[in-house]
Amino acid sequence: MKLVLTGAAGRLGSYLREPLAAMCDALISTDIVKDIGTLYPGETYIRADLADMAQIAPVLEGADMVIHFGAIVDEKPFEELLGPNFVGSYNIWEAGYKAGVKRIVYASSIHAVGMHLKTDGIGVDAEHRPDTFYGLAKCFTEDLGRMYWDKRGMESVHLRILSCAQVNNARALGTWLSYDDLIQLVTRAIDTPSVGFTIAYGVSNNDRAPVNNAKASFLGYRPKDNAEYLAAQVLAEAPPVDVTDPGEICLGGPFAKVDLGQSGMAHLNVIDDRKET
Asked: Which residues are marked as active site?
């Protein structure tokens, strides 16, 4: 099996490279940086821009599946996201279709449904309610994946990741996705025999998880980690909740509050603990 990983230089990509290399005959990792450090056995790095079909199409030749994690991972003006997050997704699906790729596993996001309330308890079939242009790109790509399945029989699994980062705020007690659970989720999205078009939430087994993954249970994803052990410490340090603040009551957190085009990540204390090689 030959796999392609986009966004290999990113924080989440850094944790996926080793397990993906171990489960296939050849892993092609790609990003726009010059290099990604020491390569794992069976891994090759190819520098390519997602927004340039001429660069990305050759990377997908001969691939069985693509794990598509490449994108700008924050809210930006639409024009800045258009290339990597919108056109880049189209290029992956269209180039993948022409190359005979069986399946694409996509890093979608809770921000595709970020304006739903935490108390709604939504499932994987909730309607799109993007909180930003960034979330809109996730909606676009989910719909793109559905269309390519309906019209061309190309499978895809869209992982609506909540918060794959260290737990250092009250919201993360429910939204945390550990790196181990991320790896399990991606692995299940790859090794499940048939997926059609599937949406699944990327969240650990948190007591306070605000979403329901029941309709994606056929993937066999059974998260093992739970952020509750950090609850006492995190809540003791957390400020009082303002129940009129969209950033507090909506699934998108700060992304639900910021103006369109303004950074949501600037309001989150995300620690860059990427895995070094």
From this structure: 134
Residue 273 lies in a domain: no
Mean pLDDT to the nearest integer, 146-174: 97
Cα dihedral 135, 199, 11, 66 sign: negative
The enclosing domain of 31 has a CATH number of 3.40.50.720
Calpha distance 201→7 (Å, rounded): 19
Percent of the chain with pLDDT over 90: 96
Specify which residues 201 forms β-bridges with.
160
Distance of alpha carbon 211 from alpha carbon 136, whole angstroms: 19
Determine the structural domain holding residue 223 and report its residue range: 2-267
User: pLDDT tens for residues 162-200?
Assistant: 999 999 999 999 999 999 999 999 999 999 999 999 999
Q: Can you give the pLDDT at residue 31?
A: 98
Q: Calculate the CA dihedral of residues 68, 70, 73, 76 and round it to 10 degrees.
A: -120
Query: Is residue 274 in some structural domain?
Result: no
